[in-house]
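User: What would this chain look like folded?
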Amino acid sequence: MTPAVGSLLIIVVLAIVYAIDKIPPAVVAITAAIICALLGMIGYGDVFSELGGTSAVLLMSMMIVGGALFHTGLAAKIARFFLKFTGTSERGIMVAVTLVAALISSVLNNVGVVVTLMPIVLKMCKDAKVSPSRGLMPLAYGAGVGGIITLVGAASSVTANGIMEAAGVEGVNFIELAWVGIPLSVLSILYIAFFGQKLIPDNGFDFSNMEIYEKEEAETSIVKQWICGIIFALVIIFMAYQPFGLPLYFISSLGALILVLTGCISEKDAYASIDWSTILICGAMLAVGNAVSSTGGSDLIGQWVVNILGESASPYLITLVIVVVVTLVTNFLSNVSTATLMMPIAIAIAGGIGCNPKTMGIIVIIAANASFMTPVGAQAFTVVYGPGKYKFLDYAKVGLPITIINTLLALILVPMVWPF
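Assistant: Here's the prediction, encoded as structure tokens.
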């Protein structure tokens, strides 16, 4: 068995173990990364190198920013503001959370949006006596679909666009993806409001972590709330426009550092606000993705597609296959890894059948962001996995209809806007 086949076999086993849901996802992810190293697919140092990478830094720093919102009492004030409009109805909270998350994640990284809004959503749920699991999943899906509206909404879109341009293919502008992203967001919000609400689990009322924050809220000065609010706003603005070319992880880490230095959150509480399980899953799955790439597993998938369908296959059939393959892969690798793996394949296939490579590139971007059926494909969904007390298959139940909507929109709208 070649290393390429071995790497793909590991992905299949990963999918099965994740679905069984008997072993913690972080343990499964780290085990897979270690096996990749033992089999020589990646170096031993590469197993844990991503734990200190930019994605992990972005996650950790935004978790600290979110923690500061709680500790200063600012999250409580924002939650009360939203509750004036949503009321205490469960459906109202779900729709409001999904809508707000989609709007903000259209211009900000969707992971940062989920981590930052999570304490606000938790406070809204507690005040309305709604289970956190009923509010956190709409938050993740809102951020997930909203991230497709613009190029900067998801890190995978930026990564994929860079690969397209490096290959000599016309890149995607800031708002171009909105042709698919806006309809997807609108339909997803309607789905959550009328059908998804019945599928999202109710896992009880565990607000134990919030009791500490609320005790501190009464002791927190208004000055610290203002400082936290200003820093929070500046982080959002800077992440949207990235002045001087500052990367997202640098902006978020600088904001977190200032919040600690100004006393808006203590060093001890900053560490406690980090969900280390999420960080481990993120780092380990990126290592697995690197193993699939370095062994040629992604190239092998491309060869299979061409060999099965033939070079004279209809571009619509090719598009369908690419959407399905990329969607399946992105639910078990990180969406950034999937975009990196599949974009060169899609461009090569486009050249082989003589169609517009940008069209296939757009398809990869949209499908790579469709990691709606597992908690490990996109960090935005990983973040709420623990706090919401979800099971692995909860994501499959809620995310399958959104995945179908995304696939249909890609098949219908992409060829219309970006002809073959």
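The radius of gyration is 21 Å. If you want, I can go into more detail on any region.
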